[in-house]
Amino acid sequence: MKVQIDPQRCHGHGRCYTLAPALFGEDDEGYGQVIGDSAVSPDQEHAARLAVSNCPERAIDLVEEA
Amino acid sequence: MTLDERFTRDFRETRGDQPLGTRNEIVTGPVSDWATDFSHLEPEWAADPYPIQDDLRQRCPIAHTDRFGGGWLPTSYEDVAAIAYDTERFSSRSIIMSNFRPPRELAPVGGTPPISSDPPFHHDARKLLLPVFTKKEVARREEATRALCHSLIDAFEGRQDVDAAHEYAQHIPMRVIADMLGFPQEDGPRFREFIENALEGVNRPPEERMERMALLFDYLLAQIRDHVDNPRDDLTTYLINAELYGRKLEPSHVAGTMALLLIAGIDTTWSAIGASLWHLAKTPADRRRLVAEPELLPTAMEEFLRAYAPVTMARLVKEDMHWNGVDMKSEDWVLLSFPAANRDPAQFEQADEVVIDREVNRHVAFGLGIHRCVGSHLARMELRVALEVWLERIPEFTLQDPAAVTWAAGQVRGPRTLPLRVAYA
Fold first, then answer.
1. Structure confidence by residue, pLDDT tens digits, B66-96
2. Cα separation, B168 vs B414, whole angstroms
3. What are the structural domain ranges in chain B?
4. A36, CA 20 to 30 Å: which among B248, B252, B381, B387?
5. Structural domains for chain A
6. What is the CATH number of domain B5-423?
7. Beta-carbon separation of A54 and B134 below 8 A
8. How far A29 CA sits from the closest chain B CA (Å)?
9. How far from B126 is each of A14, B27, B315, CA to CA, in Å?
10. What percentage of chain A has pLDDT greater than the value 90?
């Protein structure tokens, strides 16, 4: 699985990089960014789901890799 | 000697050049029907707005009032979100619903950019502030904030009866924002007067409000001039030197942004800290659990922000339109109640209950869309540290008398008197 942030929807609430700091970071203006290759390891799956379900803007998606 | 020519003239002199706004008759007193005559300035709302909002959401999801020259109150999450995202049809030219509408010419900048700004100017004015308010940047203030919280408790330690709003919560954001702007700490009591006028004094005569607002801008001008003469590493110097479109900012932009940071930075966080302590004082099970499981605090804190969201914003309708079943007129106010959205059962399970380990929590306490509270990372840091220190030092506390708690009326709601009986660790 991979995580994605829609930059059009992200307004920098920072819930993702607070709840899943191994998957998300902040840029210089506080917008969320996916760290590394965006792949979610099994031990990060719960954190990834928390980030998705706590983003007020619904800017984060968890997608199955094809 | 102030060398920056932008700040040699008084704001009172330059204000005379601006077009006038419009006023309406001020209506106060008991509300006849909340669906057709609402007022968030009345004591019944201040004491407990939630049953009113819940009732409206069921029987009249977009309430109306003729007060304030006409306005609307949507209470569903869906409507609040739609308006927050729709900056084409709803302007932020004034974000405090009052009996005075500033002139249309004030858009897209507004009096206190960027909160009062509309696109496209909004984006550029906001961009100046974002780097200063990131999570990483505000983390640098955590240690000093923690020390401040301890010193506030040191000052009353040993006393059984404490007013947690007055002696604790209010001082934390006041000191943090004064430090960030580079204002003297002893000016705190003056900030309270400025804030009270801007947010709670909404039904005073407009002339009186403007005179009080002028006092705030006199104060800000004095601070700006002092910073022009003695630049330092703080937000005031940063704004004086900041550039937009290749030029230094307009003097009204510098002062307006400072006014915004001062007013929006204090009452809001004070309210969030106070409401959280109020909840824990009256809910021993939650208090004991947080004392036993401090790692739950970040989750619990989001739930306090959802259930007791302090901030309601306002918008002005740009043009006459039929919107979600109601006929909105140009210049009508819309009260954008994030607290009501946060308790909509269509969006949240057990919406009217405080569930401190709630895992799914897309609350909108800090707004949605392009106007997301620019200070949200600072507010969260202050709230977390304030609660951590309090629970560590004062694990046991109850309300002395539930009826003695008083709440601010208006668009920022939180406890202003919070008498607690406390026991120290």
1. 999 999 999 999 999 999 999 999 999 999 9
2. 14
3. 5-423
4. B381
5. 2-63 (3.30.70.20)
6. 1.10.630.10
7. no
8. 5
9. 17, 35, 18
10. 91
